[in-house]
Amino acid sequence: MLIRPRRLRRNENLRKMVRETRVDSSSLIYPMFIKEGAGITEEIPSMEGQYRYSIDRMGAKLEELLNAGVKQVMLFGVPDHKDEQGSGAYAADGIIQKALAYAKSNYPELYFITDVCMCEYTSHGHCGLLKGQEVDNDSTLERLSQTALSHVQAGADMVAPSDMMDGRIGHIRQTLDQNGYEMVPIMSYAVKYASSFYAPFREAAGSAPSFGDRKSYQMDYHNRKEGIREALLDIEEGADIIMVKPALTYLDMVREITDAVQVPVAAYSVSGEYAMVKTASKYQCINEEKIVCEMAASVYRAGASIYLTYYAEEIADYMKKGYIG
Fold first, then answer.
1. DSSP percent split of the chain into helix, strand, coil, nearest 5
2. 10 Å Cβ neighbour count for 10?
3. Which residue among 26, 110, 174, 293 has its CA within the 20 to 30 Å range from the CA of 325?
C-alpha cells in the first residue's frame, strides 16, 4: 500500500510530533465559589471535591492553583443577603468586590475573571429584574453594567456576563469605556443553552429560580444557527472572547462558533459534567484520569482555545505528566 496512516502512529514520540491539538495550562480557567462569612471551606454535596470558600480561606486554594500552573480564576459569589434588585451584585462591599480586593493584593500574578449576572443575588433567583413574572431585559442592562464596573473597580482583570440579556455586551462595553476601562476585556457567555447540566452549580451558588425557568432568555438546545447569531451579535457589541456553555454535549457548537468568528472561543465544562464523571468514577465505572483527559482534548480538538473546568488543577498536572497536551 502506498498510503499507510498507521506509519505516523508507531511510537509515542512520533504521535506527539504530529499531534494536531496541542494545549497547555495557560488555557485553563478554574471556577471558584466565594461565600460570605469566615473560616469556611464547605464542600458542595453534588460536586465532590469542590468547595465554597470564605475570603479568609480562599488563599489556600489560590496557592494550590498557582503551584499547579493554573493562573486564571473565575469568581462566583455566594452572598448572605438577596433582594428583588440583586443589589449585592453591584455593591461596593459585595462578596465578589471584597474577594477581588483580597485576591489582587495577595496574588497579583493570578488573573481574575468575574461572572456578571444577577441570579446569585436576586431573591427570586432569575438573571435580571422582574416586571411581573417576566424578566425585563432593558431595565436589567443598567444593573449588569453597574455590576461589571464595580468588579473592575475592585480589581477584576476581565468580566464575563452570563445573564443572556439582549444588548448587554454593548451596554457593559460602553460603561467600562466611559469610566476609563477600555482595555478590560469582556468574555461573553454568548452561546449559553438552557441546560439541565447546570443543576449542581445552582446548588453551589444558591441560584436556582424560585419560579419558572430560564428558557425565555437562555437558548433552546435544539438550535444551531441561533448560537452563531448570538456570537456574531456579541462580537459586534464589543465581546473579546466568545464562550460556549455547556461544553461536552455542545462540541458541534464549539466547532461552528470557531469557524464563524475571528476571536478566541472558550468552552465551559459545567457542573453537571463534573458531577457525572465524579459519580461514575466513585462507582468504578470509568477511569477518572483518562476520561478527564479525553474530555479536555475533545474540547480543544473542536476548536476552543480556552477551557473553563473544575478539573483545571488536575488537568494541569496531567499536562505536566504528558497524558494530554
1. 45, 20, 35
2. 9
3. 110
- Which residue of the set 82, 245, 320, 321 is catalytic? 245
The angle subtended at Cα 314 by Cα 312 and Cα 317, nearest 5°, is 110
CA–CA dist 215, 263 (Å, integer): 27
**Residue in 231, 255, 248 with CA at minimum distance from that of residue 303:** 255
β-bridge pairing 134-135 and 130-131 = antiparallel
Say if residues 197 and 246 touch (Cβ distance below 8 Å). Answer: yes
Q: What are phi and psi of 295, to 5 degrees?
A: -60, -45
Q: What average pLDDT does the segment 198-223 reach?
A: 81
Is residue 237 a contact partner of residue 173, using CB atoms and an 8 Å limit? Answer: yes
pTM: 0.93
From 176, 155, 31, 164, select the one nearest 96 (Cα to Cα): 155
Q: Is 245 a catalytic residue?
A: yes
Q: Identify the helix (H) or strand (E) that includes residue 73.
A: strand 72-78
Give the H or E element holding residue 191: strand 187-192
Query: In the predicted model, is pLDDT for residue 186 greater than 90?
Result: yes
Catalytic residue among 192, 278, 290, 320: 192
**pLDDT digits over 212-265, tens only?**
677 888 999 999 999 999 999 999 999 999 999 999 999 999 999 999 999 999
Q: What is the pLDDT of residues 28-79, one digit of tens each?
A: 999 999 999 999 999 999 999 999 999 999 999 999 999 999 999 999 999 9
For residue 212, what pLDDT is reported? 63
